[in-house]
Amino acid sequence: TLQATALVHEAWLRLGADAQGRWQNRRHFFGAAAEAMRRILVDHARKRQTEKRGGGAAKIEWVDSVLQVESTPAQLLAVHEALEE
Question: For 58-67, which contacts have Cβ atoms below 8 Å and span 24 or more sequence positions?
């Protein structure tokens, strides 16, 4: 879970902590801060969703030699037809 303090700090970093003079007024600043926080929350949710769906799973390299099957075309067609039924 993303804590409120962490959210505010991340938003401050994304807004550019040294760019205090670029805001036209308080409303402009708070609008930009709200937008930054919304984007941070969306990014956080997407990251968690990716992890939930196997984003951290180990990748397996495809090796053709391990998966080679000795069969004739007739045998492959027979398997295909059996699976289609």
Answer: none
**7 part of a folded domain:** yes
In a domain, 29, yes or no: yes
Tens-digit pLDDT string for the chain (85 aa)? 689 999 999 999 988 866 667 888 999 989 999 999 999 999 998 888 887 777 667 777 767 666 566 777 788 888 888 888 8
* Structural tokens at position 12: 């401050």
**Residue 72 located in a structural domain:** no
- Sign of the torsion formed by the C-alpha atoms of 67, 58, 53 and 55: negative
Q: Of 42, 33, 29, 30, which is closest to residue 14 (Cα–Cα)?
A: 33
Instruction: Indicate the number of domains in the chain.
Output: 1
